Amino acid sequence: MKILVTGGAGFIGSAVVRLAVRRGHEVVNLDAMTYAANAGNVASVSNSPLYAFEQADLRDRAALDRVLADHQPDAIMHLAAESHVDRSIDGPGDFIETNITGTYNLLEAARAYWVGQGRPEGFRFHHISTDEVFGSLGETGQFTEDTPYDPRSPYSASKAASDHLVRAWHETYGLPVVLTNCSNNYGPFHFPEKLVPVVILNALHGRPIPVYGDGGNVRDWLYVEDHADALLLVLEKGDLGRSYNIGGENEAKNIDLVRTICAHMDRLRPEHAPHERLITFVTDRPGHDRRYAIDPTRIRTELGWQPSVTVEEGLARTVEWYLQNEDWWRPLLSRQGVGERLGKA
Ligand SMILES: NC(=O)c1ccc[n+]([C@@H]2O[C@H](COP(=O)([O-])OP(=O)(O)OC[C@H]3O[C@@H](n4cnc5c(N)ncnc54)[C@H](O)[C@@H]3O)[C@@H](O)[C@H]2O)c1
């Protein structure tokens, strides 16, 4: 297949690009190269004859039309988005423009292209979304594909809106879409403003490790390469118009995840142990969702997917990767907002 991946220079998009090229697909990576992007994320495939890059912005409809006309993909995997909840609290405008208007532009460009091609049956528009659209759970229960949407941050509201647009383009115009909603990812190439890399790098530098609120917020963690594998499976085998929840069934309280990373740092950098002494509780994020948990029954039973890595193994690999890849993360620490407390409203 020739796949147009949007956001392929970001964290998850680059995992999709690397895996798709490894599997022999042709990939066109469309990315605006915002603060969250990094060319190094796709360095391992950028010389492949299967790989092409287009710097283009979802807000520029004409650019999207041109890229589709030039490359004529068989499928689109749409991952480009503004993705950091704290930044969405400080500046929701970019989230509305990229995640909602940008998705609208891409849907319209895809529809025009698909119609122009004679509505090929095999064409797919795969929209990649988050479990955050479902809101916050209490102590029990899991999100299924039928859980009503209840987004509570500007980020999750913008992603929810984009999901609705994608479903509407399927129902109204017959665009062949599939959707996925995934839980929190972690792994290599994760931008150093997100929890897991912040903990690793602050521990490494002997700096306070900030934990929001009481640390009791629960997330369902999935290794990024397992997510990429699930996404390619849904693209190839998912039923049209349906959505699939993706999660590793690895629920952990933030504080426990942080302690596990500290234990890995104690093992790998024993001279600074115990790293737990750096944990510092800070003012909570406004509207901080308490618990997310994914019921992945549909993708497991209907498509036969399962994650390959336990959270213990995935976290160990991730910590080791950051310790071995300073050249990757060091330049990112000077990007705007990195290392600052954002999203206090
Ligand atoms: N990170 C997670 O845990 C998680 C979980 C579930 C779903 N998701 C979803 O997966 C997708 C990818 O997330 P991520 O963590 O890799 O994000 P990321 O922030 O690491 O990467 C986003 C990429 O999109 C690009 N981009 C942003 N605005 C753009 C625009 N206007 N035009 C073109 N490109 C633009 C950026 O340059 C960047 O390369 C997002 O849609 C996100 O909502 C993320």
Automatic annotation (TrEMBL):
Residues 4-317 form the NAD(P)-binding domain. Keywords: Lyase, NAD. It comes from the Bacteria. The gene is rfbB. This is dTDP-glucose 4,6-dehydratase. SUPFAM superfamilies: NAD(P)-binding Rossmann-fold domains. Its cofactor is NAD(+). It catalyses: dTDP-alpha-D-glucose = dTDP-4-dehydro-6-deoxy-alpha-D-glucose + H2O. It holds the Pfam family GDP_Man_Dehyd. Belongs to the NAD(P)-dependent epimerase/dehydratase family. dTDP-glucose dehydratase subfamily. GO terms for molecular function: dTDP-glucose 4,6-dehydratase activity. PANTHER family: DTDP-D-GLUCOSE 4,6-DEHYDRATASE-RELATED. GO terms for biological process: nucleotide-sugar metabolic process. Its EC number is 4.2.1.46.
